[in-house]
Amino acid sequence: MKEKTFVMLKPDAVQRKLIGRIIQRFEDKGFDILNMKMMKISRELAEKHYEEHKGKDYYEKLVNFMSSGRVVAMVIEGENAISVVRKMIGKTNPLEADVGTIRGDFAYSTPDNVIHASDSKESAEREINLFFGQ
Ligand code: CDP
Ligand code: MG
């Protein structure tokens, strides 16, 4: 089933000049990039995006990091895009992420694990709306 998912290249990806190589993987897979923008997100937007993590010990560090520099937000479309993109990014802890995944290949710590992707249909809709409107 064709789906849309929300992907965000985190500030470390932009700073480390990984944008091209990461986007290449989604294009190579055959996915369509429907929308994309580079932006520096406010603390408020970072808090809203990660509101389900409020109260976790890593929350403050996470929202500080996410609002510390430019990100690239995008909408990616393709067959089973939500679960396939999650597979392509790899586990949250990059030290546990398989080699061949984006986090497994490019990251080694949190919260700076290079990339975000929606984990369900509901979060994809919420996040696309939060960053791109309807
Ligand atoms: O990003 P993902 O959906 O894989 O993981 P999450 O559990 O939804 O956590 C969101 C983000 O919070 C992660 O991508 C990390 O940047 C950060 N995090 C962290 O810094 N330390 C943790 N123990 C868990 C998450
Ligand atoms: Mg998540």
UniProtKB/TrEMBL annotation:
Cofactor: Mg(2+)
Residue positions of the active site: 116
Subcellular location per the Swiss-Prot or TrEMBL entry: Cytoplasm
Residue sites binding ATP per the record: 10, 58, 86, 92, 103, 113
Keywords: ATP-binding, Cytoplasm, Kinase, Magnesium, Metal-binding, Nucleotide metabolism, Nucleotide-binding, Phosphoprotein, Transferase
EC main group: transferase
Cellular component terms per the entry's GO annotation: cytoplasm
GO molecular function terms noted in the UniProt entry: ATP binding; metal ion binding; nucleoside diphosphate kinase activity
Domain Nucleoside diphosphate kinase-like: 2-134
Principal place of residence: cytoplasm
GO biological process, one term: UTP biosynthetic process
Reaction catalysis annotation: a ribonucleoside 5'-diphosphate + ATP = a ribonucleoside 5'-triphosphate + ADP; a 2'-deoxyribonucleoside 5'-diphosphate + ATP = a 2'-deoxyribonucleoside 5'-triphosphate + ADP
Keyword flag Phosphoprotein: yes
EC number: 2.7.4.6
Protein task: Major role in the synthesis of nucleoside triphosphates other than ATP. The ATP gamma phosphate is transferred to the NDP beta phosphate via a ping-pong mechanism, using a phosphorylated active-site intermediate.
PANTHER family linked to this entry: NUCLEOSIDE DIPHOSPHATE KINASE (PTHR11349)
Family under the similarity heading: Belongs to the NDK family.
Official protein name in the record: Nucleoside diphosphate kinase
Organism encoding this protein: Methanothermococcus okinawensis (strain DSM 14208 / JCM 11175 / IH1)
Lineage: Archaea, Methanobacteriati, Methanobacteriota, Methanomada group, Methanococci
